[in-house]
Known about the structure:
Elements: H1 37-44, H2 46-56, E1 86-94, H3 99-102, E2 107-112, H4 125-128, E3 134-136, H5 138-150, E4 156-159, H6 165-177, E5 184-188, H7 194-199, E6 206-209, H8 216-222, H9 229-244, E7 248-250, E8 253-263, H10 272-283, E9 288-292, H11 313-325, E10 330-331
Parallel strand pairs: 2-4, 4-5, 5-6, 6-8, 8-9, 9-10
Antiparallel strand pairs: 1-2, 1-3, 7-8
Amino acid sequence: MAGVAMLGSFGCSGIVGQSENNPRGARNQRRNIPEPRYLELERSGELAHREKALWKLYSPCYLCPRLCGAKRAEGIGGYCTVASSFRVASYGVDFATERPIRGTRGSGGIFLSNCNLLCIFCQNWQIAHRGDGSVTTPDQLANMMMSIQRRNPHNVSFISPTHLVPQIVSALRIAIGRGFNLPLLFDTSGYESLEVIKLLDGVVDIYQPDFKFMDSEIAARFTQGAPNYAEHAAAAIKEMHRQVGVLKMADGLAYRGILMRHLVLPENLSETDKFVRWVANELSPETHINISGQFFPAFRSNEFPPLNRRITRTEHNQAMTWARDAGLHNFHS
Length: 333
């Protein structure tokens, strides 16, 4: 999960006086920017097929690389602990995300509770590990999307979506019927099933994946044993890039593509030097990227030195030097 600030209390309301049948976002399309591709998938019936295929992976659950097989429909949760119901921690309009995403009107964000990766240094552990939030249905999730659209942001992002992709697509189809038409963002830890990401081709406009670790053995130490993190993240991110390509911009605002995120860890535990070379070689030197220096000891970090300290300015400067030496130059924070 990316380090994203909370977006306000759960259940924030839409703008008073906006009609559900004439949402502000529908009147505010930017010129020369294509409509989100999920609208054509819905018109053709393909989105309904994708929805059905995703629900088949839900119970027993094979939505993420842990492949835990939890019988979620019967109320049995897996590693993410989410069973037949799910929670949303907050939703609203965010101005703290990267500039090409937030633009001038902000980015709508829906912060989903729980997580499939479970980093021991999670900065949002109350949500990701403890599952704080309010029980929600796909219909209510669609209402949140419409509420956000009436507040007129540039897009809507699902934060920590991996374990709830079927519910998201179901909510999207309901929201489309109510007039939803904003670009859709997928803000993920990178620990994704390649099968699921392929089913999202044309559904997601902008991917915002982390690539946290380049070494799966190191990753397993800090993610409660998540197997083969680096291999799964690499495969999933390459598929995301195949689908949407380098970030596409109009008037400084992104409307399609991939924006990579990477958190620099103390003593280069995340192997930033290898990560930036991977991005340049396997994706493109034109890739837009946030190399974050915002790590701080959180949750159980104090139990795992050197994660018991912040990174130094020297460590972040070294990370940026590695990135520039690799040929990367589209940086965001």
